Amino acid sequence: MAFPKSLAIPRAKDESGKAWQAILIGLFVAFGGVLFGYDTGTISGILAMPYWQKLFSTGYVDPDGNPNVTGAQESAIVSILSAGLMISTWVFNLGVVLHTVATAIPMFLAGRFFAGFGVGLISALGTAPKWIRGFVVGAYQWAITIGLLIAAIVNNATKHRDDSGSYRIHIGIQLAWSLILFGGMLFLPETPRYLIKGGRLEKATRALSRLRRLPADHEALRSELAEVQANHDFETSLGTGTYLDCFKPPILKRLLTGMGLQALQQLTVLRKLWRFKRLYCDHDYLLHQRGVYITCMYAYDKFGRRPLLLWGAIGMCVSQLIVAILGTVSTGQTDTGEIIVKNLSGQKAAVAFVCIYIFFFASTWGPLAWVVTGEIFPLKTRAKSLSITTATNWLLNWAIAYSTPYLVNYGDGYANLQSKIFFVWFGCCFLCIAFVWFMIYETKGLSLEQVDQLYEEVSNPRESSKWRPTTSWEDREVQGGHEKAVKEQVHANTVEREK
Q1: How many of the other CB atoms lie within 10 Å of CB of 11?
Q2: DSSP string, 229-255
Q3: Where is this region: Disordered (predicted)?
Q4: Last residue within a domain, chosen from 163, 188, 213
Q5: CA-to-CA distance for 447 and 247, rounded, in angstroms?
């Protein structure tokens, strides 16, 4: 059956040459998501292993009468990964080794901390063509679900072992993902934009020539490089960007957009879903997520960022509210904290809406938060702005991972919200709707230079989808030079007349 032309992603008319190499590079870098997803899925399985609970217990006995770790220790173990975020695969390897050989909590925490360093690889992106940039960047989020799925499979294969292999096998496999990334990075080319920023135009020409499979003197290649160069020259004329510049207009609006997106993405995730599997669903939901990513990634460049984020927020908001209501009315609790199911039909309905929520998140906010933040910043402050927005994501990741056990669990010092936690996430999803409506610009099909023009010329995000670039940065630079020359000539004539 032929694929409908109306659903195909249209290639830009001005896009010449081959795109496959740039796409492959972007997809390879997105493979870093496997590392993050596998590590995230690993810890949830390990914490539930009886052998691990007994070995690492410091004397605490859970309500079932089994040796275990306390809620505070669990929060520290889960959240410490985010606190150790840095860019280094080999430090990640050190972390893997440390908590593989660990037999007590201090060394296990140290391993988790250093493992967080390696997850910084996820922030790197290849130079993908603008007409399919959303697909390539969205592939990173899909890679996370692959990592989660592999972790679930390994967990099921080792969880019943009554020896240290129950968790050490699980952790040791992570070395494979790190080594693959490290080996591939040895061959990754530098991006043309990075080379132009460093004043290496000749190398930038060769790099783009290899990526597009075009001769160095090809008109389309020269035009693309001229556009990037003109934009860079303009930004250079404004001075070197600092972190302080990120918090000044006109960059401030974009920074708040990126930080808000990353924060809300974390606040809307079903954090610690594995804790609710006895109520709602098991790791099978990961299979559902994979299918969603495969079928929906093309939509990012077909239908645009703004509408998908808006409808995704609406879908998540409604789903969270229904799950909160169903979970609250269909379950009860004994004096010892044990959960009682009052209405099995209500529980089954909750499972259905959890899956619906996953569909909306996996196809919109999960990947698109990274797509949009990767597109909206100018070259002058791009690296610094992205570091701030990524730090926002990880800060919220850590805070939520640390606080969720205290909000959900039963016992002294805990909020015991249980299913009511979904009301909190419903409120966060409601904020997402307003945030998209008032803050998100449509950047589908625009080059990074054209996104700069969009923010310059359009003040209302709701009008951004109608905007079309009328001039290139190269044209604007020439026009600006002409206007400057005219002004200088007028001034010279005025001085001559006065004489």
Answers
A1: 13
A2: HHHHHHHHHT----HHHHTSTTHHHHH
A3: 460-483
A4: 188
A5: 24
Q: Which residues pair with 342 in a beta bridge?
A: none
Rounded to a whole number of angstroms, the CA Rg of the chain reads: 26
CA 140 to chain centre: 7
Q: How far apart are CA 91 and CA 334, in angstroms?
A: 46
Q: Which whole-number Å values give the CA distances from 213 to 131, 134, 379, 397, 448, in the listed order? A: 17, 21, 25, 40, 21
**Residue 162 near residue 46, CB atoms below 8 Å:** no
- Full pLDDT tens readout for the chain, 499 residues: 443 444 444 555 555 556 666 667 767 777 777 877 787 778 777 887 888 888 888 888 877 778 888 877 877 777 666 655 644 445 555 666 676 677 777 777 777 666 654 444 333 343 555 555 556 666 776 777 778 778 878 888 887 888 888 888 888 888 887 788 778 777 776 777 777 877 788 888 887 787 777 787 888 788 878 877 887 777 677 666 778 888 998 899 999 999 999 999 988 876 544 444 444 444 444 444 554 555 556 666 678 889 999 999 999 999 999 999 998 998 888 777 777 888 888 888 988 898 888 888 878 888 888 889 988 988 778 878 888 888 888 788 778 878 887 888 777 778 888 888 899 999 999 999 999 999 999 998 887 778 888 998 999 999 999 998 876 655 555 555 544 544 454 445 444 544 5
Q: Both tokens of residue 344?
A: 């099995």
Domain holding 32, by residue range, is: 16-188
User: Of all helices (H) and strands (E), which one includes residue 341?
Assistant: strand 339-341
What are the start-end ranges of the H helices in 159-173?
A: 165-172
Does residue 233 lie in a domain region? no
Looking at the structure, tell me whether residues 28 and 160 fall in a common domain.
yes
Domain boundary among 188, 212, 228: 188
Does 227 reside within a domain?
no
In the chain, how many domains are there? 2
Ordered DSSP codes for 175-198: HHHHHHHHHHHTTPPPPHHHHHHT
Nearest alpha carbon to residue 327 among 421, 427, 428, 430: 421
How buried is residue 415: exposed, middle or buried, by Cβ count under 10 Å (0-12/13-18/19+)? middle
- Burial grade of 196 (CB within 10 A; 0-12, 13-18, 19 or more): buried
| Residues 175/91, Cβ–Cβ less than 8 Å | no
Count helices and strands (H / E) in the chain: 23, 2
